[in-house]
Fold each of these.
Amino acid sequence: MMVSDSKTLQAVRTPDLGVVLCKSCGTVITTIPTNGVKKIHGLCSDPACASGK
Ligand SMILES: [Zn+2]
């Protein structure tokens, strides 16, 4: 698998991408190539979110 950081950031609006959202603040953390549009919940690097609260 190849991932281009500069491209993934610009590809947020492209269909057929999985979007990783922060489940705490809703920020788009990153996007990953997937089969179809998917939303994946994770935690961003914000200390308030990374603590899990
Ligand atoms: Zn967050």
Amino acid sequence: MGRFLTVLLAACFVAATAGGQTTGNPVTETILSGYSARMFASEPVSDSDIDLILRCGIKAPSARNSQSWKFTVVRDDALNGSIIRDFAPGNVLIFISGPESGQQGSFVDFDCALATENMFIAAQSLDLGARIYGGPVGQVNQEKREELEIPEGYRVISILRIGHLEQGVDAVSSASTRKSMEEVVNYRD
Ligand SMILES: Cc1cc2nc3c(=O)[nH]c(=O)nc-3n(C[C@H](O)[C@H](O)[C@H](O)COP(=O)(O)O)c2cc1C
């Protein structure tokens, strides 16, 4: 009986780990099936989802644990629509900002990017759509910082859009392709 149990447990372990480490791992599943949404529905995102997403952003690592980011959550559809084309009512924009006075060689941009990515993945794990925007950042910093109430002395580094996905959008056809492992990975002998 003991031998049978050992064999059974070993078989369960092999089955659980077969096919690499993605099967049944919700984090890697979310990352590997994720994509930048284009088609958003007009359905408000709940405060509790935004709260959880923000906590995931705050949990990001940062150089010397400086955590120098600020997150500005904007639910003003008219204002958001003046920044992002095809903005759907109920979507939320999170503006991720860092200190303007970041010294040369500081990691402010890097840190803010990590927080952005944490929130991007967190949103997808909650079955929400997400998209990172860098295009409008220059104009936002020039013209809309005050209206957006970005904290004094901070500049926007990235914008994260979060919303419910339009039903029927095919995640596979929406996803962009990636370079192959052979193209981007080399193992030093
Ligand atoms: C730093 C950064 C800036 C981006 N800026 C924009 C943007 O201005 N407009 C946009 O539509 N998508 C933007 N994207 C989304 C990318 O186009 C998208 O992540 C990429 O094409 C890969 O697509 P996928 O995430 O669906 O696989 C940006 C992404 C990143 C990481």
Amino acid sequence: MDDCTGGCLCGTVRFRLASEPYDAGWCHCRTCQLNSGSPAMVFATVSLADYRFDQGEAAVRRVASSSFGHRAFCGECGTPLYTHVKHQPDTIDFSVATLDEPGRVRPGFHIFWTSRLPWIEIDDRLPKYDRFRPDTVGLDGTEPPA
Ligand SMILES: [Zn+2]
Ligand SMILES: [Zn+2]
């Protein structure tokens, strides 16, 4: 993949991925709905070291979004940038929509399908999981969001 770059709405934060993202998927949990103000979010995973700020890192703010993780967002415009959870310390899940070319990263599954909004209609034949995927790395002992 060519350089995968992205940023926030106001342009303060710019980032670049040093490796190809993987495990892209939709999340329909309440935390994502509230964090985005939207029915769902699409995340993809990349190693923490490979998510590199080109500018605006000082403007990035973090909020504890659960007992086991935080979300980073642009402190100037509020764009949600990524989530980082304790049970996956070496990777982050970034918002695919923040890429300059978000269409390049295709989601492959849905999680927290049971929390989806009743008027959303998705007929994409992707696997749909009630909560987390059963093989989620390091999930034992964590308390998933309701
Ligand atoms: Zn911004
Ligand atoms: Zn979620």
